[in-house]
């Protein structure tokens, strides 16, 4: 599928690339994962489906990702959250479904908190969280650090780790980990005031499905669904995974339209 050239919005000196499909609300807002971009399989499938349904769809690359400007090593959850809020406010109107993948699910949850603080909580009509990784810096990365990684953080301010998804290594900076602690959400009830549907692969090597189960404990009991996918990995990009994602997205859009 040929992508049209993205629009750009400047946030804190970085040009953030955005692809916005006009349509009716409630629409979809895609929030990608760590080191992923808005042209991935799931994001493209959701955008195409939204077009078929006449819905608005918005996706962007965080700074240091994909077609956006900025240095990846400067990225933090706070920075990418601010960019996501700027895109949301600039490009969308009315109610939207936030679709967050992996780290994007963490950013989606933080967006809900920040929008509610600003009196804009009713702009979010639902959350679709795919292999959610909230608080992954404190819950998954830091507890697993070895001695050499801890030393690298202290002496050079970052450490590198081989990636299963790219020939380039993952880079985790001390600033990124410290900022992660300031953005933790798994400390109390996360009041979303909208339906939440979590899709989690049981064969996910990066985010254990028990992490998704723990997230459920921090969400209000009403309108929260956790679907465990036996054999599903972290990407959730198989044809059957995409069909399920689109089916859940359609259900959330229908619910938000009635509300």
Q: Count the helices. How many?
A: 8
Helix/strand class: alpha/beta
Estimated share of beta-strand residues: 15-25%
- The low-confidence parts are none
Give the total of domains: 1
Topology as a string of helices (H) and strands (E)? EEEHEHEHEHHEEHEHEH
Number of strands: 10
Relative helix content: 25-40%
Mean pLDDT score = 96
Q: Report the span from N to C terminus.
A: 34 Å
What overall geometry do the principal axes of the alpha carbons give?
globular
Alpha-carbon Rg, integer: 17 Å
CATH classification, class level: Alpha Beta
Architecture, CATH level 2?
3-Layer(aba) Sandwich
Sketch the major β-sheet: 8 strands, mixed
Strand order of the largest sheet: 1-2-4-3-5-6-9-10
């Amino acid at each position: 599928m040929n992508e049209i050239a993205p629009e750009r919005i400047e946030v804190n000196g970085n040009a953030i690339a955005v692809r916005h499909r006009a349509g009716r609300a409630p629409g979809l807002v895609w929030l990608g994962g760590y080191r992923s971009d808005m042209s991935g399989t799931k994001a493209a499938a959701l955008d195409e489906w939204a077009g078929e349904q006449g819905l608005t769809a918005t996706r962007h690359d965080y700074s240091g990702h994909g077609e956006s400007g900025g240095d990846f090593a400067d990225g933090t959850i706070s920075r990418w959250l601010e960019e996501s809020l700027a895109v949301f406010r600039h490009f969308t109107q009315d109610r939207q479904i936030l679709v967050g993948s992996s780290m994007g699910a963490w950013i989606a949850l933080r967006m809900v908190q920040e929008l509610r603080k600003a009196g804009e909580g009713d702009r979010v009509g639902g959350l679709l969280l795919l292999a959610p990784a909230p608080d992954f810096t404190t819950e998954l990365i830091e507890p697993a650090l070895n001695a050499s990684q801890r030393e690298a953080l202290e002496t050079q301010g970052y450490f590198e780790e081989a990636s299963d998804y790219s020939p380039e290594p993952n880079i985790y900076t001390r600033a990124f980990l410290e900022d992660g602690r300031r953005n933790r959400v798994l400390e109390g009830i996360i009041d979303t005031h909208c339906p939440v549907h979590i899709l989690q692969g049981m064969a996910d090597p990066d985010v254990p499905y028990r992490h998704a189960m723990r997230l459920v404990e921090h969400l209000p009991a009403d309108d929260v669904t956790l679907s465990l996918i036996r054999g599903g990995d972290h990407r959730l990009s198989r044809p059957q995974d995409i069909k399920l994602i689109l089916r859940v997205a359609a259900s959330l859009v229908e619910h938000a339209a009635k509300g």
